[in-house]
Design brief:
By secondary structure, the chain is mainly α. It has one domain (3-62). The chain has helices at 21-33, 41-62. The longest helix has 22 residues, at 41-62. The chain is rod-shaped and about 60 Å long.
């Protein structure tokens, strides 16, 4: 889960903004648990698509 959509129960602001100490602590915790949490899901999908295309191209060249 990405933390950019989470809302802080303490200040009712998005956790990604880090407005209060609770937000900042949770944002830090989420980043430590999952280093990919800050990435946009569409960027991750695009990265996977590029990697699949590169593997397909390499496989086609070796045949």
């Amino acid at each position: 889960m990405t933390y950019d959509r989470l809302v802080c129960a303490n200040c009712a602001a998005p956790v990604s903004e880090g407005r209060c100490p609770v937000c900042r602590a949770n944002r830090e915790r989420l980043q430590q648990e999952n280093p990919l949490a800050g990435f946009n899901p569409m960027a991750l999908i695009a990265l996977v698509a590029v990697l699949v295309a590169a593997v397909a191209l390499l496989a086609h060249q070796t045949v």
